[in-house]
Amino acid sequence: MTFCTTFFLFGLLGLTIATVIPRADPITALSASQVAAFKPFSYYAAKAYCQPAAVLNKSCGINCDANTAFQPMAAGGDGSAIQFWYVGIDPSLKTVIVGHQGTDPNKIVPLLTDGGFFLDHLNQTLFPGLNSSIEVHNKFADEHAKTANQILSATRAALQKSNLTQVTLVGHSLGAALALLDSVFLPQFLPGIQFKTFGYGLPRVGNQAFADYVDANVQLSHVNNRQDFVPVIPLRTLGFVQPQGEKHIQDNLTWLDCPGNDNPDSRCSAGDVSSVSTGNLSNHDGPYDGVEMGGATCKNVTGTAGIATAAASTIHAGCGALFLLATAFSLLPLQLL
Ligand SMILES: *[C@@H]1O[C@H](CO)[C@@H](O)[C@H](O)[C@H]1NC(C)=O
Ligand SMILES: *[C@@H]1O[C@H](CO)[C@@H](O)[C@H](O)[C@H]1NC(C)=O
Ligand SMILES: *[C@@H]1O[C@H](CO)[C@@H](O)[C@H](O)[C@H]1NC(C)=O
Ligand SMILES: *[C@@H]1O[C@H](CO)[C@@H](O)[C@H](O)[C@H]1NC(C)=O
Ligand SMILES: *[C@@H]1O[C@H](CO)[C@@H](O)[C@H](O)[C@H]1NC(C)=O
Ligand SMILES: *[C@@H]1O[C@H](CO)[C@@H](O)[C@H](O)[C@H]1NC(C)=O
Ligand SMILES: *[C@@H]1O[C@H](CO)[C@@H](O)[C@H](O)[C@H]1NC(C)=O
Fold it and tell me: Where does the secretion signal sit in this chain (predicted)?
């Protein structure tokens, strides 16, 4: 019960601490063609839920068929202790693609709200020379470290084979967090390469210094669907901050550009999902302009549905009721914004 208790206390603490979020630039709508430009990357993010073998032989259903030019290079993970990942080449989009599998709503929420996580310094071997004030979610960092070097080698090989100079990182949920860590990690070892990152349902990954670093160095777009509350956890009161680049899908399905870090406007996630009663976890998997995440659309979902990460599976069964109660409490302070 330690997790539960710690977390519950954090939730209560949040009640007494109103966070100050600065207002930012105007919110603007994306044009139809701007929204459409996300679609290949949305399918690439969804593809990361499919079995590595199916990704490699291009038999993963709609998520493979949507990007016919794709040439798989490497794929791995087991979908439980290690999230699936893949690397390949898209000669038509002129980019190497690196995809990270996420996890389902019932697994990601405990990972972001139970008491077993904290902000930790980056591993200096994987992230040499970064400002020591940068801190990230320890479990995201642990998960990232499991495949970091394999993905670096595969990405380097794909760049050499294709002679391309662009890498695009994609992922949904936990996979978006891993893609974001990769977009800080990979550029250090691949000089002269351009990087772009597309995250879907991205949770808060690190502290203000991390968000500042991402804002200055990473070309990030992260799409939040309606009242999905994963993008607003872990709480800002615990020191977590979203980087810029939010695109927020409205109830009427238009996409708005939400500038700033955790834009508090009611048309953006931090303002829209102001309490647990306005959050809706069914929105986490999509649709993102018609694209569903979570493995439901992989041709063969055996082994991909109900993915647990090693970290996520540590949630105690007995936590249930207290967890929900504390989640309610911990989202309350958002109403004070
Ligand atoms: C592709 O790989 C999957 C998973 O191993 C297998 O079930 C399927 O038969 C393979 N398809 C082809 C066309 O090789
Ligand atoms: C940092 O990462 C390297 C390479 O993955 C690993 O060998 C090392 O044990 C890690 N250090 C810490 C303190 O976790
Ligand atoms: C690879 O790209 C470089 C410049 O980007 C170019 O000079 C070189 O000729 C290309 N090589 C091949 C084999 O296409
Ligand atoms: C590290 O970041 C802090 C604030 O986040 C800043 O004050 C400091 O100057 C930075 N140090 C270096 C060496 O960039
Ligand atoms: C959709 O909703 C947003 C506010 O969330 C509004 O600004 C926009 O005008 C609406 N668009 C349409 C086509 O109704
Ligand atoms: C949550 O979202 C789902 C999917 O859009 C919808 O069917 C359901 O009615 C929503 N629930 C609430 C309470 O709004
Ligand atoms: C899915 O894969 C399993 C083995 O992993 C196989 O037994 C099953 O027939 C496959 N189903 C489909 C629809 O391809």
Answer: 1-18
| Enclosing H/E stretch for 109 | helix 105-113
Give CA–CA dist 281/102, Å, rounded.
15
Whether omega for the bond prior to residue 128 falls within 30 degrees of 0, making it cis, is no
Q: Pocket of ligand 1, candidates 58, 59, 299: which has the most ligand atoms within 8 Å of its Cβ, to mutate?
A: 59
Q: Which of 119, 138, 118, 173 is nearest to 307 (CA)?
A: 173
Rounded to the nearest 10 degrees, the angle between the axes of helix 208-217 and helix 174-189 is: 60
Q: What is the CA radius of gyration of the chain?
A: 19
Q: 51 CB under 6 A from ligand 1?
A: yes
Residue ranges and CATH numbers for the domains of the chain are 3-336 (3.40.50.1820)
* pLDDT tens-digit map of 108-134: 777 777 778 999 999 999 999 899 999
Rounded-to-integer distance, Cα 266 and Cα 269, Å: 7
The three-class DSSP label of residue 132 is coil
- Phi, psi (deg, nearest 5) at residue 248: -115, 120
pLDDT in tens, 273-308: 977 678 999 999 999 999 999 988 897 544 443 333
Contact by Cβ (8 Å): 4, 319: yes
Mutate to test the pocket of ligand 5, among 250, 258, 268, 278 (most ligand atoms within 8 A of CB): 250
